[in-house]
Specification:
Layout: H1 3-18, H2 22-33, H3 38-50, H4 52-62, H5 72-87, H6 93-107, H7 112-125, H8 138-146, H9 150-159, H10 162-171, E1 178-182, H11 189-198, E2 202-205, E3 212-216, H12 224-227, E4 231-233, H13 236-245, E5 252-256, H14 262-270, E6 276-281, H15 284-297, E7 302-306, E8 320-326, H16 348-351, H17 353-365, E9 368-378, H18 387-396, E10 400-408, H19 410-413, E11 418-425
Parallel strand pairs: 5-6, 5-8, 6-7, 8-9
Antiparallel strand pairs: 1-3, 1-4, 2-3, 9-11, 10-11
Helix pairs in contact: 1-2, 1-3, 1-5, 3-5, 4-5, 5-6, 5-7, 6-7, 8-9, 13-14, 17-18
């Protein structure tokens, strides 16, 4: 059995059956199975996840009884097989079919003939398969073509033009580059660039943040540089929030909803370990991640403690020069990295997110000194969670003024979708 396809299958089953996050499941399966081509595994896993609704649409057309009764094991193997046939030009047709049959013999007992038949039907009929009629149902057409839950397509069509939405949907299916944040406490950017290139990594500099580098290559996190704390993985739009907040040496900073801590750690590096950052999160176990990372990076000015961000911590009222609110959100800006987000059902909890976000922002605003800065950000593309939350807050808090607002999009900025609003207290 091909170890690469086995690793991809196990990852996809973890995502499908256990609702695991794709990046966590993939890293776990790579460690367990030790595939000889990690790049192939990643391409297959993320390719299937990014195109799941399209693949299922084809499978539903090819299976006489429809897709509804196909078991998860069979369905995962079929998705993998059709993805290889439709999108991976480097994989010969016979290899895609034969290896899928081998997987079926191991993981879908008695279904090898069924798997073989469906894949051969796809090869025979692929040029006659048609997408839904766009003129009859544009939401369904876009949902299937780009593999997004219909409610996401509807949401964006309500907020942006059709052409823009289609560009946004397509950009969400692109593979993002790996961005790293150079740790100024331990390294200079030019030295990191030189060391990475010496180890055959491809490196280019970021456009928004002076300590961002984009890196291509295998096993980046296995390097001595990473273990020694010279850099961390952080998407540039996320880091840009800390650039706009601009914490200074000696400042008192509060980071609510801080875990897993990327922004708090970036601010500590920016402050050169001078001043203090209070990093809070409702989940105590997540704070351990921040503390471990701080030790790796040589950071000494972060103090973590557990707190429900919707409540006001009376001991912190009026104490902070800078307050960061990285609010929990729908995550629609990071589908390039976590494509399983595209298939979430719209739940009552999601409808209540703006209320929770406003409560967190309102509580956090109490910590800001007169003349201090409050920054609200999310990793989503949804005006209800972004502009509307900020506008409601400002209407009820006349002592805060908006200084800067930005919504980043993958199809415009080449980054994750990220919203940032910087406000000052009078």
């Amino acid at each position: 059995m091909d170890i690469n396809r086995k690793t991809a299958y196990n990852t996809l089953m973890d995502v499908e059956s256990k609702k695991s996050f794709s990046n966590i499941a993939l890293n776990h399966q790579i460690i367990c199975n030790r595939p000889d081509s990690k790049g192939f595994v990643r391409e297959l896993v993320y390719g299937v996840l990014e195109n799941k609704l399209l693949l299922d649409y084809y499978i539903d057309k090819l299976v006489p009884s429809g897709i509804s009764k196909v078991k998860a094991s069979d369905l995962t193997i079929l998705r993998m097989g059709i993805y290889q046939l439709a999108f991976m030009n480097s994989v010969p047709e016979y290899a895609a079919v034969n290896e899928s049959v081998v997987l079926a013999k191991r993981y879908a007992k008695g279904r090898a003939g069924f798997i073989n038949g469906v894949l051969r039907s796809y090869i025979r009929d692929k040029y006659s398969l048609r997408l839904p009629d766009r003129s009859e149902d544009e939401v369904n057409y876009l949902s299937v073509k780009y593999s997004y839950a219909p409610w996401i397509v509807e949401l964006w069509l309500d907020q942006y033009s059709v052409d823009f939405v289609e560009e946004l949907l397509a950009a969400g299916n692109e593979t993002p580059e790996t961005a790293i944040r150079v740790n100024w406490l331990k390294a200079l950017k030019k030295d990191i660039i030189e060391k990475l290139r010496d180890r055959n990594f491809t490196v280019r500099e970021g456009e928004l943040c002076e300590n961002t580098l984009y890196v291509k290559g295998e096993d980046l996190l296995d390097t001595i540089m990473y273990r020694d704390g010279m850099f961390s993985v952080q998407e540039e739009s996320s880091l840009y929030a800390t650039v706009l907040l601009d914490p200074k040496k000696g400042d008192t900073v509060i980071d609510t909803c801080a875990a897993p801590g990327g922004k708090a750690l970036a601010m500590a590096e920016r402050m050169n370990n001078e001043g203090i950052i209070y990093a809070t999160d409702v989940y105590k176990r997540k704070l351990d991640i921040i503390n471990r990372e701080a030790e790796r990076l040589g950071i000494k000015n972060i103090k973590t403690y557990s707190w429900d961000a919707t409540r006001v911590d009376s001991e912190m009222v009026g104490k902070a020069d800078k307050v960061l609110v990285d609010a929990p959100c729908s995550g629609l800006g990071v589908v390039r990295r976590k494509p399983e987000i595209k298939y979430r059902s719209k739940s009552a909890d999601m409808d209540h997110l703006p209320t929770k976000q406003l409560a967190i922002l309102s509580a956090a605003s109490k910590y800001v000194k007169v003349g201090g800065t409050l920054l609200y950000c999310t990793c989503t593309i949804n005006k209800d969670e972004n502009e509307k939350v900020v506008n409601t807050f400002l209407r009820h808090n006349k002592n805060f003024k908006r200084e800067e607002k930005i919504q980043m999009f993958p199809n415009v900025n080449g980054t994750d979708g990220f919203f940032i609003c910087k406000m000052k207290r009078d």
